[in-house]
Amino acid sequence: MTSTAADILITPTSTPLPQAEREALLAAPPFGRVFTDHMVTSTWSQGQGWSPLHVQARRALEVEPSAKVLHYGQAIFEGLKAYHQPDGGVALFRPDRNAARLQRSAARMAMPALPQELFLTAVEALVRQDRDWVPTQPEQSLYLRPFMIATESGLGVQQPAGEYLFCVIASPAGAYFPRGVAPVKVWLSTEYSRAAPGGTGEAKCAGNYAASFLAQQQATQAGCDQVVWLDALHHRLVEEMGGMNLFFVYGSGAHARLVTPALTGTLLPGITRESLLQLGADLGYAVEEGSISVEQWREGCASGQISEVFACGTAAVITPVGEVASSHGGWLVGDGQPGPVTRQLREAVLALQYGSAADPHGWMHPVP
User: pLDDT by residue (tens digit) across 178-194?
Assistant: First the structure.
């Protein structure tokens, strides 16, 4: 029987982290290294559907050595944040879009769909249980990581698993990039590809990230912060940057135009990306989804036609790109510093998320 949002069991931990230790960790939490006291789980099996959600002490997971996730990579995840609000409450940013994307990722990886209501109930329940872990300092937040893995035991590869675990954990988060809003230097990967047409590029599956590590190592060795992925066929068209989407700013001032690579099936449909297309239009900028080649990027920066470039995603919000490097040389974007459009959009997103600006689109989801 598939559970509903009303089916939830809460078993609080008997050993929560002492307040003094928690507050010390919250003073400057490194991204993804510190975790809250609890987690939420639900299991799925054929014929039974999803079990009731269980809020319980965060603990190590036990899986069989033959679990299919370990051999065939059926693993998907999401990332979203909870933000402290001026009235003392906590709100999530567009969690319905994360729920929908998890369903799309599950469909691509032949995994069962998690009902959106169950997803929302799970993330709300964890935030409520670990409310004291939500940071209150500027630009800090509680990062939530929902994920699903195949737990059925068996080495047969003929069909997908018949048993799964859905889990949500949480981590107080400071800045994703330790240097803050400082521009990043990026490496154009012409040797490796992130995704190909017909592949899993638009799914948020674990294997996409494992396949990116080698290129990221190459970027680091070249003195760069992040890798930029190009199309798999010709390594010519810009796709995305690491785990973030890219935006190009053409022109300046009120006549600036925002362009982001179109979703072709090989790019991750970022929720921050989707939001910025709307916020950019709200601010009066022309916005569009299209394509841009490496040559157009280089020539646009040389002529001044492209004035700014930035990356966006849940973890880093908006990060300016200041310099590009590749095996064929590199170039600066503008003067190498964050541009006014990048700063304006970043401030607009943060003001919305932290409750200091109006929410005309109803994107913020208060946790009751």
Answer: 666 789 999 999 999 99
